[in-house]
Amino acid sequence: MDNSLRMVTTPATGGRCAVATLTLAMAVLALAAAVLLAAPAAVRAADKPETTTREVKKAKAVKEEVKKAKPMGKLTEDEKRALIPVTDARAPASTVAPPTRALPVAREDVEIKPKKGKKRPSLPTISRIKWYGHAFMYLTSSTGVRVAIDPFGANVVTYPFPIRLPADIVLVSSLADDREGGEQLFGNPPVYRANVSIGRIRANGLDLKGVQSFCDVTRKVTNTIYVLRMDGMTFVHLGNLGQVLDARQREEIGTADVLFLNAGTLQLTVEQLNRIALDLGARIIIPIACKTSKSGPLLLRPVDEFLHAKVFPVQNIGVSELTLSPASLPTTPTIYLLKEHNPDAADPNAAPAPAPAGGEATDGTLPAPGPAGGENKPAAPPPAPGT
After folding, report:
1. How many Å is the Cα radius of gyration of the chain?
2. For 207-244, how does the pLDDT look when each residue is reduced to its tens digit (9 = 90+)?
3. CATH fourth-level superfamily of 127-337
4. What is the DSSP letter of 16?
């Protein structure tokens, strides 16, 4: 009985095993189908910039089917990757690599350095100053711009006016005859006269300013103070100033590196003149318009009376011309005493004389004018009357 029963039971048990095996195979097929369905959905979700709600629901349904078909512990790696949580992300992570941060660059790495033994050429910042007598100052910038200030007239003082002296700008502080000689300059330069040259002026690349003032304490005769900024320095020409500067005028003028001070005026005391130089912070003080043997009938103070106060140290330049640069300015206010211009000496500022029709001599002297042919032959005698 037991043996027959065992014989009967064994086939049944084998049938149940076959059914279980078939069921497991169907589950594996269902899982594989779920994986195949989930993989394209995951790829599409990664490609799209945004995951839609429908795709999220579909992926969650696939997950549930996979979990029911096979326990989590018996899943393969591919099946586990199919169960990665899907979120409703609005902005999926970018597959583009983030930009690299720029490395700090030192200045010495990009700066072009000169070769050893060679210095970089520096721009010239030298101004030339020449005193032609009385209040006539002649300034030349490093770029060649020539400024004539208060050129004297021919009927008052007896200073010799320079021959063929060119100028690019002429500044006239007052309408007095001893300051109105601009028409004698060579080249027909523009003339900026008092009363009409107040305020800022831009001429030939130079920054100029005219400050209104007066020639006497009564404030009846106007005077223009000129401020020039040239080659990194500030030049101030007081003109024929005859009043103490007020706060407005001092503010408009500013600080003077080089001050052309009319030390010979009798409208101001020596103490007041020194106070003006101190108020403007002048580093170089050049006395002008003082009494000399060539001042004519003008009532002026000799320069010795101004120097007698000994407020500032005095440096006797000994010539009528000097060159200045910002580096050459003294650290303390100093009076620079210029020498009277020698008209017999060659003037480097004068324009060369035109060659005559007869040509130019080789020794530098000008030959006597000859005929138009250029040869110094005697001219033919005039024809006799009646021929």
Report:
1. 50
2. 999 999 999 888 889 999 999 999 999 999 999 999 99
3. Ribonuclease Z/Hydroxyacylglutathione hydrolase-like (3.60.15.10)
4. H
Name beta bridge partners: 145. none
Question: Do 237 and 222 meet the contact criterion of CB atoms below 8 Å apart?
Answer: no
189-193 contacts, C-beta under 8 A, 24 or more apart: 189/148
**Which CA distances in Å does 151 have to 166, 333, 375?**
12, 27, 40
Rounded to whole angstroms, the Cα distance separating 143 from 325 reads 13
DSSP 166: B
Q: Give 358's contacts (C-beta < 8 A, 6+ positions apart).
A: 367, 368, 369, 370, 371, 374, 375, 376
Q: In angstroms, what CA-CA distances link 34 with 22, 23, 73?
A: 18, 16, 17
Tokens of 244: 């103490």
CA distance 330 to 281: 12
Is 281 in contact with 256 (CB distance < 8 Å)? yes
CA distance 226 to 209: 6
Say which DSSP state 186 is in.
Answer: B
CB 288 within 8 A of CB 261: yes
Domain ranges (residues) in the chain:
7-82, 127-337
Q: What is the mean pLDDT of each run of 10 residues along the chain (387 residues)?
A: 46 58 75 66 53 68 65 62 53 54 51 54 76 96 96 89 93 89 88 87 92 91 96 97 97 98 97 98 98 94 96 96 96 96 80 60 38 40 44
Q: Can you tell me the distance from the alpha carbon of 319 to that of 286, in angstroms, rounded to the nearest whole number?
A: 13
